[in-house]
Design a protein that fits this description.
26% of the residues lie in helices and 25% in strands. By secondary structure, the chain is an alpha+beta fold. Helix 6 packs across helix 7, helix 10 packs across helix 11 and helix 11 packs across helix 15. The protein is globular. The two termini are 46 Å apart. The C terminus is likely disordered.
Length: 782
Amino acid sequence: MKRKNDHGFPDRQAIVAFIKANHGKAGTREIAREFGLKNADRAELRRMLRELADDGIVKKKRHKVSEPDALPPTLLADITGRDADGELIASPAEWDEVESGEPPRILIEMPRRPRPGTAAGVGDRALLRIEPTGEDDGPAWRGRIIKVIDRAKSRILGVFRELPEGGGRLVPVDKKFADRELNIAKTDTAGAQDGDLVSVDIVRSRGFGLASGKVKEKLGSVKSEKAISLIAIYAHDIPLQFSSAAEREAEAAEPANLKGREDWRDVPLVTIDPPDAKDHDDAVHAQADDDPNNKGGFIVNVAIADVSFYVRPGSALDRDALDRGNSVYFPDRVVPMLPERISNNLCSLVPGEPRGALAVRMVLGPDGRKRSHSFHRILMRSAAKLAYAQAQAAIDGRPDDTTGPLLDPILRPLYAAYACAKRARDERDPLNLDLPERKILLKSDGTVDRVVVPERLDAHKLIEEFMILANVAAAEMLEKKSLPLIYRVHDEPTLEKVHALSEFLETLDVPFTKSGALRPTLFNRVLAQLEGHDYYPLVSEVVLRAQAQAEYSSENYGHFGLNLRRYAHFTSPIRRYADLVVHRALVRALGMGEGALPDSETPETLSEVAAHISVTERRAMKAERETVDRLIAHHLADRIGASFQGRVSGVTRAGLFVKLSETGADGLIPIRSLGTEYFNYDESRHALVGTRSGTMYQLGDVVDVRLIEAAPIAGALRFELLSSSSETAPRQRRPLGAQRKSSKPHPGRSPERKRKPAKPKSGKPGKGKGKSKGKGKKGKAW
């Protein structure tokens, strides 16, 4: 019997019970159907769901509601051990313990006859379909294995430490195995020297003492920057070698020809990329529309390398590409998603060479809005390869030998079309977080030369906007054809994070009033008020941290950051598997010939692909970030005692994290080194506040620090504070009575507060929310 109130509307308890019973599947539509609600009841239902979310009884994600601590129905997990009954136990592969506490335990249910590819053991990584157990004792979740992604390793990477009596020990570089050193016999060192980075096979494991290992490969000294990226590659299980079958397929591939293609070789498309780009997967062209009904409008052509022609579903190339999910970019190397024969040759739109491509032709009105679009499978020939700064210099009156002849026929129409498209973009008002991105430049020997912040040019924005338009057109076309696809989605910030941001802005006397639906305009309004103010970098950072993490999904719930209802990645199939899936779907939808998405691909199967490539994307971001940290720590290791200026980039109970202005390196000032008084952690202000003097060290403060310690392998730096902007220019503060109170503070450290119960993250990492680097390819990787 469904419980309803006197007005025939279901009561709160009945709705919550239904949400709990339908883990991850309950939305407004499902609840209305269950309780026989009519369209007129939908507004009341949405109001009740908002109240339940505000009270913390349920949480809203996308168009579904679930219990506050619910995990997503499909999850990538690591099998970490067994329980007392010998059953496998897993935990989420991506989990931020700082933000969410201890990871939840998942009981693996294994059928008596596992399907091929689902038999698993401790140390494996698997894609799970999970649901709550409903039991108070034991794991709160149970899961069934959809597919084993990675098997447990028998080879590990570490630093060889020589022993006086011969032989040595292996110190693993992976923090997960930091307490599991290996003993290496004298006969098994393969000539490794103390401090060498080596790959070791585990040859014997026993119940007591150290396991034994045998050096398989010497990768060079850890003092060499060229070995640093290998640490991240290994630690994050990034595949480095392609299978022999994939290599054979790549070598056997033939260049595309006119068969089944339109001839666009006379269209003067050009590529605009970073100066060090090795593959060129997109080209652009624009011209004024001569249609008298579209006076002031433009026709924009975006051509993308036709990777689907070479990488067929189910092939060895396809399996390797899906395994990698995306290319990974390090300062000294690239780990590509596809072999170089494909990515840097057949699919690279180099000037003067015929290349296969998928192109979208878009008609923009004088207001910048897209009026229509059409997709074409073409054979093209790039007219020129340009760098961002080179194209911008030509427009700014400094053309060179290459851009001079292109200025009037190609570049000026491109910039005019961008100025037109920008009108619609400004009206749409996407999230305006244009934070600087640092780039490490290496010397010829692989050591760090310097760290630069490339200037953000209109050339960057032009390419970014045209790529966004093409991505939207792809999503719209596939929805029109009712074909499954992988969306690029970005959820709105949670109510909890919006409330925390509001509290923080209140401490700065910055108004932040949320009324109606949450929109990027709300955040843009705050940023616009503070532009040019000392607080601007601080507020930009806090607004960024309030955002969700963009991800891939077979279910569309829109893109909050770009303020778009539908969005799919189409423009980089060389380096992103999601784009390859979209290309295949377009080939199938429009009957373009070979390389189409198979009929067997459904929203369910694509959901699994989306979960996997979302994880590989976060894996790449983490590996890239850790490598940069290690490189800079190595670079600064011989500058112990030197002084630097920086800005507080993080505030925790452990102390202050500082980002150096010179290199962008992050390091910690331990709270115990701040002085003799007690410091309280004020979460709403992102600050540490002295209880005696009221001295406040806050996120965004400019500080002078001294480097005390550098640990290159860990990528860690430790500083001591010399001076702070908060000491020379105190801010207006609330009275001490209005500050957060804490019991029994301890000298030189922040008092511990009662730990909250673990809250699952639903796949949202902590730092770097809402943005991924994209390695300078096309601006934000929303």
